Task: structure prediction
Amino acid sequence: MMFAGLSRNDKLLFAGFTIAALAMPLLAWPVGANYPDLLQKFAIYGIFAIGFNILFGLTGYLSFGHAAFLGVGSYAAVWMFKGVTMNVIPAVIFGVLVSGMFAALIGFISLRRSGIYFSILTLAFAQMSYNLAYSVLTPITNGETGLQLSQDDARVLDRMFTEQTAGLPSTNLFGLEMSGYPGFYFCCVLLIIAFFIALRIQRSPFGMMLRAIKTNQVRMNYTGFNTRPYALTAFIISGMYAGLAGSLLAVTDPLAGAERMQWTASGEVVLMTILGGAGTLIGPILGAGLIKYFENIFSSYNDGLLAESFSFLPDFLNDTLVFVIGPFVGEGWSLLLGIVFMAIVIFLPGGLMEGLARIHGWYRRRGQGDTGRNVAKQAAE
Amino acid sequence: MAILEVNDVNKAFGGLKALNAVNLSVEEGTVHAIIGPNGAGKSTLLNCFVGRLIPDTGSVMFNGQSLLGIKPHQINQTGVARVFQTPEIFTDLSILENVMIPAFAKVDGAFRINAWKTVGTRGEVRDMAEKVLEEVGLHEKRDIIASSLSRGDKRRLEMAMCLVQDPKLLLLDEPTAGMSRADTNNTVDLLQRVGTHITKIVIEHDMHVVFSLADHISVLAQGTVIAGGKPEEIKGNPKVQEAYLGGAHA
Ligand SMILES: Nc1ncnc2c1ncn2[C@@H]1O[C@H](COP(=O)(O)OP(=O)(O)O)[C@@H](O)[C@H]1O
Ligand SMILES: [Mg+2]
Result:
């Protein structure tokens, strides 16, 4: 049932993805990224990027406001923690539903335009949400402080079954605390489900229509399709993915702040998707993982740390290196990201997936081997 | 019986009167050619049939139903398909996908979220597409990307995309423009072979094409129908001669 209609290659792709996702701690070990907090981020932003890709990669609508849905998902989840229970399941469901409704509203209005006007509308809505979170909506968002757990929270469901403890409670899955590896594996399982749903969408007639809309919307209309509800559905689905990611951020750390909705966060998911390869299934997840990994490394560096790591060099070399590299680490990490992004867009517009396909094609031409041809074809799709 | 009834249609772009009191009646099952010099308003007229433009005044009735004020996709769903002057195809998709998409519109309607079934399980839609691709001679190329097709093949593909829907009325805007003689002959042959029961309106410059296909010809000049009739009647009409020999441009 679940796999009905999927080709053998798709089943292999899904199996491979599932194994890789579950083995992420092992795979990340050689690069020193094998700690739950970071792995969790890979999974969460992977989900965010998969969803974004359904709208941007498949349908061709470039949203610059998707962080708004991430933020809404976080707020909704924290409210669930405060009001009902610390169990993560209701929080995640609530986060997805609320951001889905929010996406329906914003999508309905923004999709009256396409191209750059659509992008600007989404950006405007996201910035509006960001500002509202700081001002009028303070009762819901707790303004600049951010929405946090507190001792006086109602938590009605939890209160019925357990005594209130002295400290703040932690998020849990039916008692299993969502910190460390259990927390990561919760996100990981959701990543796998999110990937599977995206795979099914991409291979469905619905997905085919989304790709057709991206290629030629005029033809779609004169071919008898009402394209607006297709685009709106894609928008809502991707908003729900973002809401899922946002609520998982709250699962990891039950706190929601407006900065999560800022335009830089919206821009980040665009970078992830394009860096990995828009329109491909794996690319956006790869992009999300790489950006989060390097952000983690580079943003923690500062000049002092740099000087230390080059201390084996003579002083003048050390100083020069610190001078050259310094601007790109710490606060300057986004500068580095910007340069890498430009290079990708210019030299590898299909993102890393295109790069991998090229390398693969090159090997195949050298080796004239047959094996793996399908895998590459698959990867390119 | 008239399948399309155009009554007193006017359309102006600013000061330019592109269509001036156009009347037209297209008989079911016939091929109706519209000829006329460049800028006569032929494409504008077709645009009024498919919802791309709304006439300033007048009426367009298709099978007794007005086509004015309803959206392009609704017009298509009532059975009107169009081949554009510059091919409108899905350049990033394969030939087969290009034809399956219109087939899906025919089978599943204007909007349906069938996101869980795979395309692979919809054999009936694929069969429809493959059959038409055989007929137009693009079956061998079904897996290549549409952008890599030659100009003539792109036209043929767009025709296949319309034919797969088995429309009641097919509008063709200069289907042979820019084609070599061989490609033009191919297209004429194709139109005589495939979908012969479909009513067609063909805009065409090539008189050879017009006289091989048309049952009825309307001549449009400066937004007005100046003559209409059977091909033999049109051939000898002095007004038509004048319009084509530059009188209309003066
Ligand atoms: N969208 C438009 N806006 C302004 N003028 C137009 C538009 N479409 C067509 N026209 C003008 O209307 C006249 C008829 O054009 P058209 O219908 O394309 O002629 P043709 O018979 O060659 O297909 C031309 O003078 C053209 O410039
Ligand atoms: Mg024209």
Observations:
- The pocket of magnesium ion (ligand 2) is lined by residues B 42-43, 85 (CB under 6 Å).
- The interface with chain A takes residues 50, 71-73, 76-77, 81-82, 84, 88-93, 97, 100-102, 104-106, 108-122, 125, 161, 165 of chain B (CB under 8 Å).
